[in-house]
Write a structure and sequence with these properties.
Radius of gyration: 21 Å
Largest sheet: 5 strands, mixed
Order of helices and strands: EEEEEEHHEHEHEHE
Shape: elongated
Helix content: 25-40%
Number of strands: 10
């Protein structure tokens, strides 16, 4: 199916005037939105027409902070404060996760996000190459970050892997994946590690994803 027309939709444009178009049409061709057509204007001939009466069309939502694979851990020890939760429950559990757990946890999160109208998410997690694979297979867009914790014995190796990942993705000119670097938090990444991450990010024009000011104690 190469061309689609959504007819009779209420379109929230988010253009400069923030217009809301009643009874408008959306022309999609070759997997791209070609035009938003106000009511009364001529409509193109397409392969498929979808009646969007009583439906609202608007740009996809963006989830700006996720650990998508942790969908599998939803509700686990959620009555604890942050640091005991991480140190006593989450980190020991995550150490036992396999690549296939991260793959299917990410796929589950993608399904839930798409059903909620989210079309791009900003993810920070281990085995980030697996998360990128899940996104490519599902057609989901994502900012994928290599998570970095200086408290781990292989922190320097992980930093190199994360930097290599960003270079590889940028070299592929990937339409779905935006690579980033993710120093986990100030309490897991001392200043020396943060400086190395910032240097690498500046060299390749890479964005950063970090936890900041999560608790009163940290502030």
């Amino acid at each position: 199916m190469s061309s689609i027309l959504l007819k009779h939709a209420t379109v929230v444009t988010f253009n400069d005037a923030r217009e809301i178009l009643e009874d408008a049409a959306i022309h999609i061709a070759d997997n791209r939105i070609k035009a938003v057509i106000p009511t009364g204007q001529e409509l193109p001939v397409v392969d498929c027409v979808i009646d969007a009466t009583n439906k609202i069309a608007l740009p996809g939502f963006i989830n700006t902070h996720t650990h998508a694979a942790m969908t599998l851990l939803r509700g686990y020890a959620d009555d604890m404060e942050l640091m005991p939760w991480l140190q006593e429950k989450i980190w020991p559990t995550e150490s036992r996760l396999r690549e296939q757990d991260i793959y299917w946890g990410t796929q589950l999160a993608i399904v839930e996000m798409l059903k909620a109208g989210i079309t791009l998410f900003n993810d920070m997690y281990f085995n980030y190459d697996i998360a990128a694979k899940a996104c490519r297979e599902s057609g989901m867009r994502a900012c994928i970050s290599g998570i970095l914790l200086a408290i781990l014995p292989n922190a320097e190796e992980n930093l190199k892997k994360a930097i290599d990942f960003t270079k590889d993705v940028k070299a592929q000119d990937d339409a779905l994946i935006i690579p980033m670097l993710a120093p986990h938090a100030p309490y897991t990444c001392p200043d020396e590690m943060i400086r190395k991450v910032i240097t690498a990010a500046r060299e390749d024009n890479i964005g950063l994803h970090i936890h900041l000011s999560e608790t009163r104690q940290e502030v």
